[in-house]
Amino acid sequence: MGPVEVRVPRLTCLVSERDDLSLLPALADAGVDGFQVRAKSLDGRALTALVERVVGAVRPEGAMVLVNDRLDVALAGGADGVHLGRVDVPVAAARRIAPDLVVGATCRTRAEVESAARDGASYAGFGPVFATASKEGLPDPLGPAAVSAAAGVLPLVAIGGIDAARVAAVVAAGAHGVAVIGGIWRQPDPVSAAKEIASQLGG
């Protein structure tokens, strides 16, 4: 089964229950066309409620919502897709269960991207490209050259230490888009930061 052709966001902002959710419509208006809900401390009920809130805030602006790890919550909360890591539901199983969802897969090599494509992934979340403080225990950063080596199989969404200053390098390396946490939420003005990143993407 090959990859399913779908719209893949170019600028994804990861969202948790600790972020200022009142900014979501403004972030979408600033050019964030994808929001990935990642809130590992929440139970299924609370996570579903969070997903529903994010969907309600950003879908009117035309943005997509994906859920990290939890295919069941993506379906229950009315999200557009799910992003699956190495220990989550396999991509092929998720594709069988939810043929219409956007399904992303975490990848670090071209071989992993090719495997995800065979299993029906819509895109590959590729990283960490640069060092990041947003997640504990990550492997060493891959660098833009690894993006180039993996490009051309699935749309690559680069993640890990991405801010406005680094967008051009990963796009030049072949990334379709970027996923951002600290580059938006840890800035003095998250909406301005998102706008600047979107402008670097041509958004």
UniProtKB/TrEMBL annotation:
2-[(2R,5Z)-2-carboxy-4-methylthiazol-5(2H)-ylidene]ethyl phosphate binds at residues 132-134, 161. 4-amino-2-methyl-5-(diphosphooxymethyl)pyrimidine binds at residues 36-40, 68, 106, 135. Mg(2+) binds at residues 69, 88. Residues 17-184 form the Thiamine phosphate synthase/TenI domain. GO terms for cellular component: cytoplasm. GO terms for biological process: thiamine biosynthetic process; thiamine diphosphate biosynthetic process. Gene3D superfamilies: Aldolase class I. InterPro entries: Aldolase_TIM (IPR013785), ThiamineP_synth_sf (IPR036206), ThiamineP_synth_TenI (IPR022998), TMP_synthase (IPR034291). Its cofactor is Mg(2+). Pathway: Cofactor biosynthesis; thiamine diphosphate biosynthesis; thiamine phosphate from 4-amino-2-methyl-5-diphosphomethylpyrimidine and 4-methyl-5-(2-phosphoethyl)-thiazole: step 1/1. Binds 1 Mg(2+) ion per subunit. Keywords: Magnesium, Metal-binding, Thiamine biosynthesis, Transferase. The keyword Zinc does not apply. It catalyses: 2-[(2R,5Z)-2-carboxy-4-methylthiazol-5(2H)-ylidene]ethyl phosphate + 4-amino-2-methyl-5-(diphosphooxymethyl)pyrimidine + 2 H(+) = thiamine phosphate + CO2 + diphosphate; 4-methyl-5-(2-phosphooxyethyl)-thiazole + 4-amino-2-methyl-5-(diphosphooxymethyl)pyrimidine + H(+) = thiamine phosphate + diphosphate; 2-(2-carboxy-4-methylthiazol-5-yl)ethyl phosphate + 4-amino-2-methyl-5-(diphosphooxymethyl)pyrimidine + 2 H(+) = thiamine phosphate + CO2 + diphosphate. Pfam families: TMP-TENI (PF02581). GO terms for molecular function: magnesium ion binding; thiamine-phosphate diphosphorylase activity. Transmembrane segments: none annotated. Its EC number is 2.5.1.3. Condenses 4-methyl-5-(beta-hydroxyethyl)thiazole monophosphate (THZ-P) and 2-methyl-4-amino-5-hydroxymethyl pyrimidine pyrophosphate (HMP-PP) to form thiamine monophosphate (TMP). Belongs to the thiamine-phosphate synthase family. This is Thiamine-phosphate synthase. It comes from Nocardioides immobilis. The lineage of its organism: Bacteria, Bacillati, Actinomycetota, Actinomycetes, Propionibacteriales.
